[in-house]
Specification:
Strand order of the largest sheet: 1-8-3-4
Oligomer: single chain
Structural class: alpha+beta
Distance between the termini: 166 Å
Number of strands: 8
Helix content: 10-25%
Number of helices: 4
Strand content: 15-25%
Order of helices and strands: HEEHEEEEEEHH
Radius of gyration: 74 Å
Shape: rod-shaped
Length: about 230
């Protein structure tokens, strides 16, 4: 409005000039252009126009990253055991595998042999009184303490075998009276010559080994003892 008010005097001057020129019949020179008037105040904001049409839908954006897996849930209770299935057919026997390498040799077992000594006393005599002593060097103190002494006899030249002491037949007896380091004493209730005596010396513990190696051996049978101990 202020700008319009400024323009009105200018128009009035122009009209006056035109009227004067008309009256005179000559056009006067154009006056200088006046300075622009000050800008008038801003008018009120007009009403908002209607909304424009909706634009087209934009393209689908990229898929977001997969989230971290959630925690495992608690295990459920075990179900009841199912029924046993039927027994399958027996499979074929597989081929025999190659023989494995030979293992190391095991430790040696206990020696079944017995360290014994034997003496053959030929054509000896026994007497009714006292006893008869025979020298046996293999009887040591160790034998006396823990060994075993077996004594057998026969008639000299007989092939019927030996009889073990103590011996008793038809009232005649011969026994091993006693023994010590280096000797044995044989006692008889009769006197007789022409007898062979076989004395077998077995160290302590060897008798047990011999019996273990030859279970059921009869020590009164010289033939069995001789075979077991390899006595000629």
């Amino acid at each position: 409005m202020r700008k319009l008010k400024l323009l009105l005097p200018i128009l009035f001057v122009c009209l006056f000039s035109v009227s004067a020129c008309k009256k005179d019949g000559t056009n006067g020179a154009n006056g200088a252009t006046g300075a622009d008037g000050a800008q008038g105040p801003q008018g009120d904001t007009g009403a908002q126009g209607p909304a424009g049409p909706q634009g087209p839908t934009g393209p689908t954006g990229p898929t977001g990253a997969t989230g971290a897996p959630g925690a495992n849930g608690a295990n459920g209770a075990n179900g009841a055991p199912g029924a046993n299935g039927s027994t399958g057919a027996t499979g074929e026997t597989g081929a025999t595998g190659p023989q494995g390498p030979q293992g190391p040799t095991g430790p040696a077992g206990a020696d079944g042999s017995v360290d014994i000594k034997s003496y053959l006393l030929i054509n000896k005599s026994v007497t009714l009184t006292g006893f008869t002593s025979f020298s046996i060097p293999a009887i040591t103190q160790e034998i006396v303490d823990s060994g075993v002494i077996l004594v057998y006899f026969r008639t000299t030249g007989s092939t019927s075998g030996y009889f073990a002491l103590p011996y008793s037949e038809a009232g005649r007896t011969i026994t091993l009276s006693d023994f010590g380091v280096g000797y044995i004493n044989v006692k008889a209730n009769f006197s007789q010559g022409g007898l062979d005596f076989k004395v077998v010396i077995i160290p302590g513990g060897s008798l047990t080994t011999m019996k273990a190696a030859h279970p059921g051996i009869n020590l009164k049978n010289y033939s069995e003892v001789a075979r077991a101990l390899h006595i000629n």
